[in-house]
Write a structure and sequence with these properties.
single chain; 2 domains; 30% strand; 347 residues; 5 helices; D-amino Acid Aminotransferase, Chain A, domain 1
Length: 347
């Protein structure tokens, strides 16, 4: 068989000895958008809502339900997911369902929101969330918890904190489906008059409302761009003692509470309702560890077991009495130090 002669190949370069030079670059189009890459922050201090006596009104305010749970930032990267508390602690292992849902979202982003457990009426229940986690300092995870996302701080290589809130929300709604199901859900914005919405929230037994400035950038701390108005007053106080009881459930009659005024603790009353028998027994065990013979306040209350002020408790109450005590106080649960909980400060 006769082979067909191969054609000689053309030289790659006309002049093999000439120096290599790239093709001249065209001048950059000045109208072309620049897309800088921003490194994902390791942690972002959260924007905190400022407590207000009434709902702010105006076209520049948006409204959302106030959730009662643990504030989290979800950091999603190609090879890992982290759930970071307000205090900067990694709680990924404590919310496995949320972590799995975050991994399924894919991409690279930071979501800001709240981890909650809902009751049968669809309201967030802080006590149920604490029980799911095994109480203060518990080691259990909470697979029934879900995350309500209300802000998007970083996405696909871009830091979004300088964008207007409404623009961040629009982008968030393309990632977390409105009215969606699952462990990560969108915290919906609500249209309407602020006063009417607050009244509706009160009638439905909700925690309260959050109002946010539509054109505000994301500022860490309490800038006033976010405002919270509570239907029921709820704050954190130090436990300074307890009154044991042989008749009460769990052997706990009441907890004695205090708040800071400057560097001093001031007695603000007691609470004897809101805890189950199981929770009361657990509180007794926790309170037996930091016992002391020296009260944190000036007091001579006989029959009270004094403790060192190390435990912070969340309390619902209706108002303050004229002598500075809580009116109609009800126990909600112990706060976690990892949640960056702080005691109420009397101004």
């Amino acid at each position: 068989m006769t082979k067909v002669p191969r054609k000689s190949s053309k030289p790659l370069l006309a002049d093999p000895d000439a120096p290599l030079r790239s093709r001249p670059r065209k001048a950059r189009d000045p109208n072309q958008a620049r897309l800088p890459f921003d490194r994902m922050p390791e942690r972002i201090e959260p924007c905190l809502a400022l407590l207000a006596p009434k709902v702010p009104k105006g076209d520049n305010w948006t409204y959302e339900i106030k959730w009662d749970g643990y504030r989290l930032a979800i950091h999603i990267e190609p090879h890992r997911v982290r759930l970071i508390t307000r205090g900067g602690h990694d709680w990924t292992h404590r919310f496995p369902s949320i972590a799995a849902a975050a991994k399924a979202l894919g991409g690279t982003m930071i979501l800001d929101g709240e981890a909650v457990v809902l009751d049968e009426e669809g309201r967030s229940d802080f006590g149920a969330l604490q029980q799911a986690l095994g109480g203060r300092g518990g080691t259990r995870d909470a697979p029934e918890a879900m995350f309500f996302a209300f802000d998007l701080l970083y996405f696909d290589g871009h830091d979004l904190r300088q964008m207007d809130f409404v623009d961040r929300r629009r982008l968030l709604e393309t990632i977390v489906e409105p009215q969606g199901e699952g462990a990560i859900r969108l915290s919906d914005t609500i249209d309407g008059d602020g006063d009417d919405l607050f009244q509706a929230a009160r009638e439905h037994g909700l925690e309260g409302l959050i109002a946010k400035k539509a054109d505000a950038a994301y500022h860490s701390g309490r800038s006033g761009d976010w405002v919270k108005v509570k239907c029921i007053k709820s704050d954190s106080f130090m436990i300074i003692g307890y009154e044991p009881s042989s008749a009460a459930r769990g052997g706990l009659g009441r907890l004695l509470l205090a708040a800071y005024k400057g560097d001093d603790l001031i007695y603000v009353g007691s609470v004897g309702t809101g805890f189950s028998e199981r929770e009361a027994a657990r509180l007794r065990r926790d309170l037996n560890k930091p016992k002391t013979t020296k009260p944190a306040i000036a007091a001579r209350d006989l029959g009270v077991t004094w403790v060192q002020p190390t435990l912070i408790v969340e309390i619902d109450y209706r108002a303050w009495t004229h002598d500075g005590n809580l009116r109609h106080a009800s126990y909600k649960g112990l706060r976690e130090q990892q949640d960056n909980a702080n005691s109420f400060v009397i101004v």
